Amino acid sequence: MQSIETREHPVQNVGQMERIASVIAGGALAIYGIRQGLTRHSLPGAALALTGGALIRRGFTGYCDVYRMLGVNSHATPPGANATIPYQQGVRVDRSITINASREDVYRFWRNLDNLPRFMRHVRSVKTIDNTHSHWTVEGPAGQKLEWDAEIINEVPNELLAWKSLPGASINNTGSVRFEHATAGRGTRISISLQYEPPAGQVSVFLAKLFGRDADTEVEQELQRLKSIIEAGEVPTSDGQPTGRVEEKAAQRSQKNNKQEEMVHASEASFPASDAPAYSHLNGR
Amino acid sequence: MKALCWYGKNDVRVETVPEPKIINPRDAIVKTTLSAICGSDLHLLHGYIPSMQQGDILGHEFMGEILEVGADVTNLKKGDRVVVPFTIACGRCWFCQQGLTSLCDNSNPNAAAAEKLYGYSASGLFGYSHIFGGYAGGQAQYVRVPFADTACLCVPNSLTDEQVLFLSDIFPTGYMAAENCNIHPGDTIAIWGCGPVGQFAIKSAYMLGAERVIAIDEIPERLELAQSKGKAETINFSEGDVAQKLKDMTGGRGPDGCIDAVGMEAHGASFDAIYDYAKQAVRMETDRPHVLRQAIQACRKGGNLSVPGVYGGFIDKFPIGAAFSKGLTMRLGQTNVHRYMKPLLDRIEKGEIDPSFVITDRYGLECAPEAYKTFDKHDHGCIKVVLRP
Q: CA A165 to CA A160: how far, in whole Å?
């Protein structure tokens, strides 16, 4: 698997007028801060001076870290702005995996878009509109519903599939999957490359990483699930297996109580019918 | 159902837990008829394997009867009598197709965590921490077996449970350990550790054509078993310099193959062994590689070093210079159990070996915590414990 690759920061992301204002305000702040710091030996003075310095730097270089974090750019629109994701904007993910199956089989599986929610955990549904258009419904990081229409913009059967979201998307995104023969008959190498514009800028990307839900990890795990489905016919799991964990035993007890209540309920509801409700599984084997 | 659960260092208890259910289409539920405690379970007991969680069900050597199968399992039916390999494998990925089932790509649901520690994830294991999948183990009345169609080996009724149970782990593990020595006729193989895996490694080394096997331990009962059943020569490591003894016993040549059937909790009294005790005690070193160092030192030039003993983390003072200068070959890893089960079952059926010779203690599952204690302390010469649910 390759490592993450977010785009390098843009050279400039602050507009012309803002840069001049930055230098003037920064200069004033720095001078005030230095005077405060010298005469009263105060820390706030030093902090003001530093902030002023940062503003001056921002003005001269035209680059602002805070803007970068927020995904803001007040600089003149960079070239390629009418692309789905403007140049040097958004988040990019590159990942690959090798699947022990023929290129045709892997391609066919992916091209049947109905299959995608089987391994893309956050994709609720992909509805095929026509041969090149589909409608996506996805659960966002905070549980919100995200939707868009996507268009397949390049398709070379058994080799390449590329798509982009259409205007009006909750998240602008674009990507491609390449299908290549792995060496010496070792199956198919899939390389996915996608780019998206996070709704709340880079801050949401940072937060997602903090909670282990960044795009790189997600895509990596999606590819692993795809591989397991195609190779093994199922995704491995140990969820739902028995354990002797204390909280689970407590949950089990309360579940049992609920079931018993349910049973009492059911008995009352079924009265005066002669058949007792079938809860014989209650006590297990 | 009753199951042996782990609650912390030296704290295992038999608890009542929910029964397992079919979760995936290739699952089966096995009603356990016989289970065992493995030496590697002691690493869990002692708290040296990371990512254990309170309540985890232990046990990876078990056999039983098929009770229920998932929708995609067509080669097994209710009532089949089966032995289950401790490594979980899909049977269809590239690694499985090479016979490397302990390296299966698709059986560890927590592969991402294992990748962080090891670079890539090996297969899932029964009852052996969450980094290896968090699968519930076989020291229980019922077990969910994933990829049951690939895993379960049906065994003939002419053989008893005790004769076939060890196909699940220690017999294949001892056999693969010997195989990893690339034995040629006339070879001398030295084996550190005369626990169950060591005993099977001794037998297997002879099966594969070794001329002499020298077994190293300090526990009298184990050395005695190695002599009586294994026909091995023995060295008691508490009685002097092992490497020098091996040199003397092999005409100054050194053993052609060396097997470390001890792993991360080696015992010893030499300077480096005490150094390891100290570092492991303060968690500055995860594994005590005393045996590994000694085996590298003792091995002949161009010899083979085979490591079936479990290591989990990092070691210090690895004698890479000795290994390099002598041009050693080192092979290690969990056992690819699936590929050894059938051929070794054939050997048992032909009467070439009766694996039950290692069993010294028999307990009911409800007494499992006591059994762990007995096994751990080697009380009254305990070598191998089986548990009957």
A: 17
Find the angle CA(A229)-CA(A233)-CA(A239) to the nearest 5 degrees. Answer: 75
DSSP structure string for B60-127 = -EEEEEEEEE-TT--S--TT-EEEE-SEE--S-SHHHHTT-GGG-SSS-TTHHHHHHHHSS---EEBT
- ipTM (interface pTM): 0.92
pLDDT of residue A142: 74
Residue A284 near residue B19, CB atoms below 8 Å: yes
| pLDDT average, residue stretch A127-133 | 96
Strands B329-332 and B361-364: unpaired
CB contact under 8 A, B54 and A235: no
Kindly report the CATH number assigned to the domain that includes residue B328: 3.40.50.720
3-state secondary structure of B259: strand
B199 and B159 belong to one structural domain: no
- The pLDDT tens digits for B92-137 are 999 999 999 999 999 999 999 999 899 999 999 999 999 999 999 9
By C-alpha distance, which of B50, B114, B54, B113 is closest to B286?
B50
A236, A241, A285 ranked by CB distance to B136: nearest? A241
* Contact check, Cβ <8 Å, A236/B107: yes
Q: Is the pLDDT of residue A5 over 60?
A: no
State whether B18 and A240 contact (CB < 8 Å). no
pLDDT tens column, B52-102: 999 999 999 999 999 999 999 999 999 999 999 999 999 999 999 999 999
| Average pLDDT value for residue range B294-303 | 97
Contacts of B144 in chain A (CB under 8 A): 241
| Rounded distance between C-alpha atoms, residue A110 and residue A118, angstroms | 11
Give the nearest chain B residue to A98 (CA atoms).
Answer: B94
List the domain range (segments joined by +) for residue B355. 2-169+335-388
Domain shared by B350 and B378, yes or no:
yes
Task: Provide the number of structural domains found in chain B.
Answer: 2
Closest by Cα among B356, B353, B308 to B86: B308
- Predicted TM-score (pTM) of the model is 0.82
Q: For residue B135, what is the DSSP state?
A: B
Instruction: Please tell me which residue, B220 or A81, carries the higher pLDDT value.
Output: B220
Please answer whether residues B325 and B299 qualify as being in contact, where contact means their C-beta atoms are separated by less than 8 angstroms. no
Round to whole Å and give the CA distance between B66 and A53. Answer: 74
Residues in CB range of B47: below 8 A, 6 or more apart:
B8, B9, B10
B24 touches chain A (CB under 8 A): yes
Give the mean model confidence (pLDDT) for residues A249-264: 51
Asked whether residue B34 carries a pLDDT value surpassing 70, the answer given is yes
